[in-house]
Fold this protein.
Amino acid sequence: MYTTVNEDGVLNNYATEPQMYYAEYPAIWQQRKYVIQGVFASLIVTTLVLVGISIS
């Protein structure tokens, strides 16, 4: 932990920062997985909306 002291003697503690890294572009199989998840999420939302409309 990084600590500084000002002229009044007050301590300031700073958290250590994690090392930065660049994100990697997702592979083809990961992209397909995201598409499938999006399709299922859309189906769930559409189903909920249609059930809500049919009930009311």
